[in-house]
Write a structure and sequence with these properties.
Elements (H helix, E strand, L loop, with lengths): L2 E4 L10 E5 L8 H8 L2 E3 L5 E3 L9 E5 L20 H18 L8 E6 L2 H16 L9 E7 L5 H4 L3 H7 L5 H25 L1 H22 L20 H7 L2 H7 L10 H6 L12 H6 L3 E7 L7 H9 L6 H6 L3 E5 L5 E9 L2 E6 L6 H4 L1 H12 L4
Helix pairs in contact: 2-3, 5-6, 6-7
Length: about 375
C-alpha cells in the first residue's frame, strides 16, 4: 500500500497518530491531503503552499491509498482488488502492523482512525478489527482511542430513508413530491436493504438499485445540483475540479521523488465497481462495542451535503443501540464555538459519553475543505477530550 506520512508540526513524539481514509470507493487519499487537511495545498503554478489548518498541526498523520488498486497502491491482477470490508480491513490491519514495526517510536502514541464518505464503511470495519485483535495477543498493540467519520455512509438502511426529508427541508422538492416519492419507493428500499443484510450480495445489488431510485427521483426534480454541496453547481464528473492534483502527481519529477511509476488517477472506476455490492451493507453494528469499551466515536457532517447528508447521519447515530442511547437522543445540542478573530458558531454538537455528533455549518461533503478552521479545532478538541 502506498502512503504519505507527516510528523506533527508540534510535538511528534507525543501527539496522536491519525490515519485518514478517503472514500469513493476508489478515491486516492491525496484528494484529502492536497485539498482538505494535509500540510500542503497545490497552487495554480503547481507549487506547494502550507495549509495553516493541516491536521498535522495536531497529529502525526497518515494518508493511505486503499483499497489496493486505489491511487498509487497498485495491483498486478484486478482480481486482487477487494470486494468487501473483511478484505479491506485485513489489508489495512497488516499495513498498520508493518507501519508501526517500521516506526516503533509511535507505537505508544494514541491512535485515531478518520476519513469521510465511503470511509463510513472502512472506519468501523477497521476499528472493530483492531479492537478485537487488541483483546488477543497481537504482534503490535495499536493504541486505538477513537474514530471520526465525516459525511459518511455507514447505515444505508436508515440513511436512505432521510433523503426526502432533507430534500424537502432544503426546498429541493415540495411536501407533495416528498409524499409521492415515499409512497412509491420507501417500502421497496426498506425491504431490499433488509435482504441485503440477510441474503447475500445479489440482494445488496438489488437494494442499491431500489434505494438509489429515491435519490434519482429527487435529482430529476431538483435538477442540476451538486450532490456534495447543494449551494453549488456540479462541475464535471466529480462535481469538483481536481485537475491540479493529477497534473502535479503525474509530473515526471514529482513521481521520481516519491518513487512511483504508475499514473495517478483521482478515483478508480475499477475499484468502485469491485465494491458495488458492499455499499448497501451496514457497518454500524460494531460501533456499540467500541463505545461500551470507551473508544470515542465522532460522526460529523456538513449541513449542505446531500449525498451523505447530516440528517441521515444524525438519525443512524440516534438509533444506535448502546447503553447511552436514551441520553444521547435526549440531548438537545449545544453550539460548537470556533476560536478565531471572533468566536463564532461552527456547528451544533450532540453528545453523551464517548459518542459525539457534530453538524457543521457552512460545509458540504468535504468539511475540512469548506470549513478548515472548524475541522482542525474539532479534531484537536475531540482528541484532547475537550469537545
Amino acid at each position: 500500500m502506498f502512503y504519505f506520512f507527516f510528523e506533527s508540526r508540534d510535538t511528534p513524539k507525543d501527539d496522536p497518530v491519525v490515519i485518514w481514509l478517503t472514500g469513493g470507493p476508489g478515491c486516492g487519499s491525496e484528494l484529502a491531503l492536497f485539498y482538505e487537511n494535509g500540510p500542503f495545498h497545490i497552487a495554480d503554478d503547481l507549487s506547494l503552499v502550507w495549509n495553516q489548518y493541516g491536521w498535522d498541526k495536531a497529529s502525526n498523520i497518515l494518508f493511505v491509498d486503499q483499497p489496493i488498486g486505489t491511487g498509487f497502491s497498485v495491483v498486478n491482477d484486478v482480481n486482487d482488488i477487494p470486494h468487501n470490508e473483511t478484505v479491506v480491513s485485513d489489508d489495512l490491519y497488516v499495513f498498520l502492523q508493518s507501519f508501526f514495526e517500521e516506526h516503533p517510536e509511535f507505537v505508544k502514541n494514541d491512535f485515531y482512525i478518520t476519513g469521510e464518505s465511503y470511509a463510513g464503511h472502512y472506519i468501523p470495519a477497521l476499528a472493530s478489527r483492531i479492537h478485537q485483535e487488541n483483546k488477543g495477543n497481537p504482534k503490535i498493540h495499536i493504541n486505538l482511542k477513537g474514530i471520526a467519520i465525516g459525511n459518511g455512509i455507514t447505515n444505508p438502511r436508515i440513511q436512505y430513508l432521510f433523503y426526502t426529508q432533507f430534500a424537502e427541508d432544503n426546498h429541493l422538492i415540495t411536501p407533495g413530491e416528498r409524499k409521492d416519492i415515499d409512497d412509491e419507493l420507501y417500502e421497496g428500499c426498506t425491504e431490499a436493504t433488509y435482504n441485503c443484510g440477510t441474503k447475500g450480495d445479489q440482494n445488496c445489488l438489488l437494494a442499491r438499485d431500489k434505494c438509489e431510485a429515491i435519490v434519482n427521483k429527487i435529482m430529476s426534480i431538483a435538477g442540476d445540483i451538486n450532490v456534495y454541496d447543494i449551494r453549488k453547481k456540479c462541475i464535471g464528473e466529480m462535481c469538483y475540479d481536481f485537475s491540479k492534483l493529477e497534473k502535479f502527481l503525474n509530473n515526471h519529477e514529482v513521481r521520481g521523488i516519491i518513487g512511483v511509476a504508475n499514473e495517478f488517477v483521482s478515483c478508480s472506476r475499477v475499484v468502485y465497481d469491485a465494491m458495488r455490492a458492499d455499499l448497501m451493507k451496514s457497518f454500524h453494528l460494531g460501533i456499540p462495542e467500541l463505545l461500551e469499551d470507551g473508544i470515542k466515536v465522532l460522526i460529523y457532517a456538513g449541513e449542505f451535503d446531500f449525498i451523505c447528508n447530516w440528517l441521515g447521519n444524525y438519525n443512524w447515530v440516534s438509533f444506535l443501540q448502546w447503553s447511552g442511547q436514551k441520553q444521547f437522543k435526549e440531548f438537545k445540542g449545544v453550539p460548537f464555538l470556533v476560536d478565531g478573530t471572533d468566536i463564532s458558531e461552527g456547528g451544533m454538537l450532540y453528545t453523551f459519553g464517548p459518542l459525539y455528533f457534530l453538524k457543521v455549518y457552512g460545509a458540504g461533503h468535504m468539511v475540512p475543505m469548506d470549513q478548515p478552521d472548524v475541522a482542525l479545532q474539532m479534531l484537536t478538541a475531540w482528541m484532547k477530550g475537550q469537545l
